[in-house]
Description:
Strand content: under 5%
Distance between the termini: 43 Å
CATH topology: Sodium/glucose cotransporter
Order of helices and strands: HHHHHHHHHHHHHHHHHHHHHHHHH
Number of domains: 1
Structural class: mainly alpha
Amino acid sequence: xxxxxxxxxxGAIVSKTASGYMIAGRxxxxxxxxxxxxxxxxxxxxxxxxxxxxxxDGLAYAFxxxxxxxxxxxxxxxxxxQWLLGKRYGFITPGDMYSYYYGTESxxxxxxxxxxxxxSFYSAVQLIASGALFNVVTGVPVxxxxxxxxxxxxxxxxxxxxxxIAWVDALQCILxxxxxxxxxxxxxxxxxxxxxxxxxxxALDPKYLEIPGVIQFTAGQTIWTGVMILTYMFSLMGIQASxxxxxxxxxxxxxxxxxxxxxxxxxxxxxxALFFFTAIQGMGxxxxxxxxxxxxxxxxVPHLIEHxxxxxxxxxxxxxxxxxxxxxxAPYIGTGSTILARDVYFRxxxxxxxxxxxxxxxxxxxxxxxxxxxxxxxxxQAALVMLGGLATAFxxxxxxxxLGVCYGWPIKGVGAVVGLLAGILTVIVTDTNTSPWPKTFGxxxxxxxxxxxxxxxxxxxxxxxKLFPDSPEIExxxxxxxxxxxQIDRPTEQQRKWRKAxxxxxxxxxxxxxxxxxxxxxxxxxxxxxx
Length: 531
């Protein structure tokens, strides 16, 4: 907490301009972005919820660990090109970029809505989860703990802006990964080692060991078929497509950190922690569930800490879990407040506002978003589950706008707006937690709501773009942006060969690794004694 408060004060002293406060003056160092963006990508859900669902649903859900690759793959598609556009055109918020490219302020307002909902919903999940864990460890009531921890977060976020968030997230990234590994190792040791664990896992009911088919033509159920796993990954890909990550892209000194964050920090280091140690926690917890009194997925990690982690290690792991939750809540609160300040207050209410006024307005909005998040989390646990599930799916829908901005897809202004609205409506209707007709449309045909939303959003965007073309002036502006991007980001001859190969390798991996073809792994492969 002292570290968090220090960087809040330090950031407030250093950030003298709106750009310096909101996007760190586009000067984040390479290593700092790598750690901070990785912490933002993998939330308290990774620490608490992910092993819990492996415990509940078995190895079929464990395929979701591949989100260490699918989350940053969105960054490989869009991060560099967004950075280039932000640098050339001076964009500070994603609303600046989308409204300029599509020539309509409606896109700015849609981004504001998505950013506010994403920030509030996702932060609510993190804040109440941190309060619940704090309660298990200290006995402090959940609401009191949530308020205390939220107060720390909102202080350094509001005081120092994105620079302070990055410095705190960097440390929290290390704590997150080490905490997951530590709990996994302690669990494996307490259970009796790898041989004992693998033997016990092999003896479990087959429903915990196999993917239940390619697809099931059902509704209202969460069944981890190959198609559900694939489209659930689409939902998590929305994390780095979200407005918050557009601002992370804008904040960098140069684009060099992007591949290191995507391939090394996320896929390799976090992947190592998830593929081995969350699987050990989840399946190990299943083996000893009766002995430890584990009755729900939310019990798993707290019970493992209580029974298997001695004093120092228990404290270290809890700090890692709290770091995981705060490292995600902070950047979404910070970027959400900046978007509200720039795209609503500065754009419409006070276009003449100076740097100091913009910074203080952003601080007020940070407190507002935190208050809304706390209200959601305290008011209704059911609403928390419902709204939290929508957050990443809404992020996925930003593909509708990004494919046009970054790659010149033939999506026009009206098409982008209507497509995004259609996608949002589809996500709400096809999510089992929010649908008015969950037994008819909820996760229809075991396809996640993010999958349905993205399909409908893109189809509607392309149709309406054909029906409602833009003015010659807007088309000329768009062409200038596309031509400049094509010139500045032109691949070398060697890169062209790799890209041709990737057009085959990446879809094949999606199909066989995390899609319908993954059912082949039920009986065709084994790994270190695991089925």
